[in-house]
Amino acid sequence: MFAYAEPAELIDAMSSAARAESAAIARRLEAVAALFRSRKCDYAEAGFLHTDVYEAVAAEVSAAQNISRSRAGYQVEMAVSLYTRLPKVAEAFARGDIDLRMVQIVLARTKNVEDDVIGGLDKAIAPKLSRWMRLSKNDLRDRVDLWVADFDPAAVRVPPEAKDNRYFDVTPDVPGMAFAGGLLNARDAAALDQRLEAIAATVCSNDPRSHNNLRADAAGALGRGESTLTCECGAEDCPAAVLRESAAQVVIHILAEQATVDGDGDKAGYLPGFGVLPAEEVRAAAKTAKLKPVRLPGAEPEKGYRPSAGLKDFLQWRDLTCRFPGCDAPVERCDVDHTTRWPFGVTHASGLKHYCRTHHVIKTFLTGVYGWRDEQRRDGTVVLTAPTGHVYTTEPLGGLLFPTLATPTAPLPDVEVPEDDPDKAAMMPRRRTREQERRARIARERRQRIEINAERERQHQAWLAATYEPPPF
């Protein structure tokens, strides 16, 4: 496209594309905000009194954009906040004057501003934002905070304490490997560091691994409840061999074809939460693992509401994740859902699948004209119809990776299902809605800021009193 373009044309194209990108994102968020307003009215009229509108709209956004529930939920919160509290900032965004980075920072720093004040702040800062585009994240944050302090001093965000930011993540990396790391309490980190060093030192000096490799392997031993490593020097009289301790009872599950385990095939396995596992890693794990075949379910439905251990095992490996469009919550955090509600739907693989708790609640309680409908095929494919009539199809991840798990199971009998209880949606179980949680957080943080400001003023007055010298007479 730009093979023969002049530099000036490239600069113009770049600038135009950046503005168009911002305008397109603004239009998407405006549509999300409008959907939220519409659904809020719809659910109120239908009597869905305890429905969390944020979660319900996030489900539609997740399916429409094929994104996760958390990303969809963040998008709904951002869109609603932008178009209800900062319409002037939204206009600048739609014109392409500012980008998404600026919008996110402005939204974050103005979260605690009272509703009766936010309009004036919006009008004051919106014309200035285009000139602030060049500022770094920290400088932009400080600039917005100054304006927030002028309009609503109690609304200036309170920095979280360092201890509240601690975390430890274990996430997949390249096939067969994972990243582990985070921010720990200093004493805990020191203890962990010493523990890794102690375990790494249990091999002899001829072990071929580097010190970093040994520390990484020591982390694995720690996870298994072991206090020593197996030395890889290869010597029969290795002095470290006598130090070897057995592992504690730690269980991980790996899904693989029998041919891979036997060495007759090289199809990768699957480690839940970490993705594909190379064939050689599967065979290495199989040497000391307990092997358990995944059995296909029988033709006859089970009698109880809860599936048997064998059927649940099959369903977990077939699905691997929540079956709602865009949701990747692992089955360990999901409920088994009867596609045709119990007791009319039978307990059988052809009519069972996994939904995370949020999507299970939405499917079960948000019914009728504004609700979701789902149907299930014998190979585990789920077809969902959204309140708007849009249709989304999801296939089981385990069945995609290992086609045997997608073998069609037995057909189910046709049954008559009575209409849902019209009051069921109104009793949708909730702890607190996102709006209630948002207001509680804002109130808590405003109290903290008021206390901080009062203490600063007290210290300032004390300093004035200590340094005051009366005039001579």
From TrEMBL:
Span list, region Disordered: 411-441
Pfam families in alphabetical order: DUF222 (PF02720)
Domain DUF222: 17-319
Name by which UniProt lists this protein: DUF222 domain-containing protein
